[in-house]
Write a structure and sequence with these properties.
CATH architecture of the largest domain: 3-Layer(aba) Sandwich
Organism: Rubus argutus
Structural class: alpha/beta
Subcellular location: Plastid, Chloroplast stroma
Strand order of the largest sheet: 1-8-7-9-6-10-11
Strand content: 15-25%
CATH topology of the largest domain: Rossmann fold
Number of strands: 17
Main location: plastid
Protein name: 2-carboxy-D-arabinitol-1-phosphatase
Largest sheet: 7 strands, mixed
Keywords: Chloroplast, Hydrolase, Plastid, Transit peptide
Number of domains: 2
CATH class of the largest domain: Alpha Beta
Distance between the termini: 28 Å
Number of helices: 14
Length: about 525
């Protein structure tokens, strides 16, 4: 069934104006009050907050909490497959002149296979052809409702739309440069496209969360998916181009009811799980990157099975952990790793050794023409397990490794983890800071709590965001530095597990029974 989300229609001088309710998001510093203006875009009219400030930070988009949810809800975001204008390097925006290429159709088919065993209650999709066609391929023979939502269209780029990128640079000069380096404050045709997009994303969340469903598929576009991700976890327009959305990349958000019925816990369970390898060559945030940090979570250990303590690395890995370490090593074989830094815990060291052995055998395996040398070292600051286990001994039960599990620890414990992880982050940045080296890749092997904190430091967040991200055993997360390690990184993927094959984590793994 295909339907269109009904907006409120107001007649004004014989012109139809479309209004959608805005969604306030998780509590942060209050946003400024002020008038709203109506701004015309390519497919209607929307509310945009009028601001005299040149910078709109996270505070503006975090004025109030999300509405409560009755039961756990998982939202799966997918970007459309490659389009004809993607292939040409043409600026699409919210125009509707491009269609999927053969490669784009194949990517959508791969995503369909990725999601074929996953149950969805509803599909929301952008009405633009490239997105709608991707949704139709993924949805296939499912009988559940498919809803076209105009607010899921791509960012409105007005006069930029239809231009090749070099044409935009030649025609608009400084404005095009602003779009490239400071998109949050970029304006064109008297509009601020990214600010408008963030407001539109909040509007989308209203309808998605109020829909009577537990598992939701959303098929849309690069920029709007970025806005949905950022607004969900309380980040402002300055985070545009920070979370990569590749063609047909899959991202997952979990909304868990709060015990007191207030704003739900919101967790980014995974980011940009792609049909192709997440370490394949490509741009990050529209820019090429030669410096990269890869965060690797070790596999399960013997003590996990015996005592149930999650992710304890004190003991050697069990058979499944060994298999996962080998699969991680195979995934990274296509990448020349310069250094591997691990926690001194046994499971982390084992995983690091597995990666190193495969890297140094690259020539024998026919992947490289010459032997590789990988520097290995251990870092005490990557070990946070003793801190977490101390909390457990003090009577705080370590929660299961479910989305947002770090919310279960005392604030004092998280503060120690956060402070130690900052030291580890600075050390990792030094690993890739060599300006003389054209490319530099560092792999860090450690506990998921530590890696979540490292991503927080990368994004210039605070420890309050630790519960907003999730990592599984054997997963990898990739951080690129297109502007160098002295600037904020770009998150290429989070919690990628497809390389684990039969042991990968299903996209819509049920979280309902234990959290209802």
């Amino acid at each position: 069934m295909l339907s269109v989300t009904p907006p409120l229609l107001l007649h004004r001088n014989s012109t139809l104006f479309f209004f959608f309710p805005s969604l306030p998001i998780r509590a942060r510093p209050p946003s400024p009050s002020g008038p709203f203006r109506i701004s015309r875009c390519s497919s209607g009219v929307q509310e945009v907050h009028e601001s005299s400030s040149d910078q709109l930070g996270s505070e503006l988009y975090a004025s109030a909490p999300f509405p409560a949810v009755k039961a756990a809800k998982r939202v799966v975001l997918v970007r459309h497959g490659q389009s004809t204008w993607n292939e040409e390097g043409r600026i699409q925006g919210s125009s509707n002149f491009s269609v999927l290429t053969k490669k784009g159709e194949a990517q959508a088919q791969t995503s369909r296979q990725m999601l074929i065993d996953d149950a969805f209650d509803v599909c929301f999709t952008s009405p633009l052809t490239r997105s709608k066609r991707t949704a139709e391929i993924i949805w296939d023979t499912r009988k559940e409702e498919m809803i076209m939502d105009p607010d899921l269209r791509e960012i409105d780029l007005y006069s930029f739309q239809g231009l090749l990128k070099h044409e935009g640079k030649a025609k608009f000069g400084a404005a095009f440069k602003k779009w490239q380096v400071d998109a949050a404050n970029f304006s064109i045709d008297d509009h601020y496209p990214v600010r408008e997009l963030w407001a539109r994303a909040r509007s989308c969340w209203t309808r998605i969360l109020f829909h009577e469903s537990r598992s939701v598929l959303v098929v849309a576009h690069n920029a709007v998916n970025q806005a949905l991700l950022a607004t969900a976890i309380g980040l402002g327009t300055e985070y545009f181009r920070t979370f990569v959305q590749s063609n047909c990349g899959v991202s997952v958000l979990d909304f868990t009811p709060h015990a007191d019925g207030g704003s739900p816990y919101i967790c980014l369970n995974r980011l940009n799980q792609t049909p192709s390898s997440p370490i394949a060559a490509g741009s990050s945030g529209g820019r090429n990157s030669s410096k990269r940090i890869i965060l690797v979570c070790h596999g399960s250990t013997q003590i996990n099975a015996e005592t149930g303590v999650p992710f304890s690395g004190d003991q050697p890995m069990d058979m499944l952990g060994v298999i996962k370490a080998q699969k991680i090593a195979e995934l990274l074989l296509d990448l020349r790793v310069n250094s591997i830094v691990s926690s001194p815990k046994d499971a982390c060291v084992e995983t690091a050794i597995a990666i190193s052995k495969v890297q140094e055998a690259a020539d024998c395996l026919g992947v490289d023409s010459v032997p590789r040398y990988v520097e290995m070292k251990q870092m005490e600051n990557l070990d946070v397990e003793n801190i977490l286990q101390k909390s457990n001994k003090n009577g705080t039960k370590i929660p299961p490794l479910q989305p947002g599990w770090l919310n279960g620890f005392e604030d004092s414990v998280m503060e120690v983890v956060w402070d130690q992880s900052e030291k580890a982050w600075q050390s990792l940045l030094e690993e890739v800071a060599d300006e003389a080296a054209p490319e530099k890749v560092a792999v860090a092997v450690g506990h998921p709590a530590l890696h979540i904190a490292l991503m927080g430091h990368c994004l210039n967040l605070t420890k309050e965001w630790l519960g907003s991200f999730h990592l599984d055993a054997g997963s990898i997360s990739v951080i690129d530095f297109p502007d160098g390690p002295s600037r904020r990184g770009v998150i290429r993927c989070i919690n990628y597990t497809a390389h684990l094959g039969r042991w990968s984590i299903p996209i819509t793994r049920s979280i309902m029974d234990s959290q209802s």
